UniProtKB/TrEMBL annotation:
Residues 2-77 form the TIR domain. It holds the Pfam family C-JID. This is Uncharacterized protein. It comes from the Eukaryota. Keywords: Leucine-rich repeat, Repeat. One of its GO terms (biological process) is defense response. Residues 246-396 form the C-JID domain. The keyword Nucleus does not apply. SUPFAM superfamilies: L domain-like. It comes from Quercus lobata (Valley oak).
């Protein structure tokens, strides 16, 4: 190996390196048998002993009593190889994963033509990224779980070779560079960046991007330039849900189906499917009747979000149920005292093909049935009222038409919610059927 200039990295599987080095235990027994049976080649046996002694002195990994998975091992071996390339010059490494090395090479404006990967995941003290213009061939930038990261240097937007950009869990990140031209980008994860409100403008060609994650962000709309992201597979706007919470205890009047309590039923005539029925808006009013003392609250985690209460919606088409993720609430810093409304829009495609197929099954009277209900893990939470409203393709067209003349379509005041009927034009008498088929009704039995 020395003559060939190769690096030897050892892995000891259930072997004590000291036994190997000093020929103890099973190794001593094995050599005793070899010496007994190979008297004519005793010189070779001695050479083996010398070689194993040298091997035992090499650095390696002992997996005798450690929970060490193969992918961890491969990573360790890879890191060792990189470190041995230039142990005193991190600027010549192809990969950087130690914060002090990243800070050193970027702060000193080193030219990092060989740098391909930076991984600083879970770096809780990372607040901002430095200038990356000196690393033009960077392919992977992984900053998962950097919960204090708040600033991304503008140079990030010009990394033409970047393939993977992972900022998942950056809950303090409020903005990205205004423009990005990441021509080679294939994977972009902003999930969990809850304070991020704006997606950057796309400059140039980013047609390779196939995976874009925007879950649990505050991004409400996307720039027109996203039309250039022609390879996206998992960022279909038709699958997006839209919703909000606000103080209030009354379901807006434009909800065609309303009920007291946590659930209601709708029956949909078959002819409505011919009118391009595309989704449903659900709404629930809830209040906390009792509050646990702070020291008794169980703080839970979903990804990087803390919560003490969770409520969700389930939607059943005939007998096929889909349960949504719902919303997370936290009372760590104070009680939620007043009544609140949660309103959410779900496109039917969000529920999946099986759910839609079940919805298309009708009873002998030509009706399909939908049950909407709300549940919670919180014993002190009570659902006082709920509502549902069917949405048609024409409603969306009307809304887009009206939106061109309005800077804001939804106002944060309960009284103004009733005005949405004038904007979306969704008051359709033909979907106002009660469960018993008695005719138009605003109230449906739960």
């Amino acid at each position: 190996m020395e003559k060939m200039g190769l690096i030897v990295l050892l892995v000891f599987y259930y072997v004590d390196p000291n036994d190997l080095c000093h020929q103890r235990g099973t190794f001593a027994n094995a050599f005793a048998k070899h010496e007994e049976h190979l008297q004519d080649n005793i010189g070779n046996v001695q050479m083996w002993k010398v070689a194993l002694t040298r091997i035992g002195d090499l650095a390696g990994w002992d997996l005798k009593e450690k929970n060490f998975w193969m992918h961890d091992l491969r990573q360790k071996i890879g890191q060792e190889i990189v470190l041995r390339e230039s142990p005193k010059e991190p600027g010549r490494h192809s990969r950087l994963w130690l914060y002090e090395d990243v800070h050193h090479v970027l702060k000193n404006n080193n030219t990092l033509d060989e740098l391909k990967l930076i991984d600083l995941s879970e770096s809780q003290n990372l607040i901002e990224t430095l200038d990356l213009s000196g690393a033009p061939n960077l392919k992977h930038l992984i900053l998962r779980g950097c919960t204090r990261l708040s600033y991304i240097h503008a140079s990030l937007g010009n990394l033409k070779q970047l393939i993977r950009l992972d900022l998942n869990g950056g809950k303090c990140l409020k903005s990205l560079p205004n423009k990005i031209g990441l021509d080679a980008l294939e994977f972009f994860n902003l999930g969990g960046c809850s304070r991020l409100k704006k997606f950057p403008e796309i400059v140039g060609n980013m047609s390779r991007l196939s995976k874009l994650y925007l879950n649990e962000t505050s991004i409400k709309d996307l720039p027109i330039s996203v039309e250039h992201l022609t390879s996206l597979r998992n960022c279909n706007p038709k699958l997006w849900t839209y919703g909000f919470e606000m103080p209030g205890g009354e379901i807006p009047k434009w909800f065609s189906h309303q009920n007291v309590g946590p659930s209601l039923k709708l029956q949909v005539p078959l002819d409505l499917f011919c009118d391009k029925l595309i989704g449903i808006i659900v709404c629930v009013a809830y209040v906390f009747r009792q509050h646990l003392p702070l020291h008794k609250l169980e703080i839970q985690y979903m990804g990087f979000f803390k919560f003490t209460h969770r409520l969700w919606c389930f939607v059943i088409a005939n007998e096929y149920q889909y349960t949504t993720w719902g919303i997370l609430l936290i009372e760590e810093f104070g009680n939620i005292e007043s009544n609140h409304l949660w309103l959410e829009y779900y496109p039917f495609q969000y529920f999946g093909e099986d759910w839609i197929e079940e919805l298309n099954q009708v009873d002998v009277n030509g009706f399909s049935h939908i049950l909407v209900g709300f549940e919670s893990t919180s014993p002190g939470m009570e659902f006082t009222k709920c509502g549902a409203h069917l949405v048609y393709e024409q409603d969306i067209d009307d809304l887009k038409q009206m939106a061109r003349g309005n800077s804001c379509n939804i106002t944060p005041y309960e009284d103004d919610l009733d005005n949405l009927a004038n904007v979306t034009k969704v008051k359709r008498s033909r979907d106002e059927f009660d469960w018993d088929g008695a005719g138009p009704s605003g109230q449906v039995a739960g």
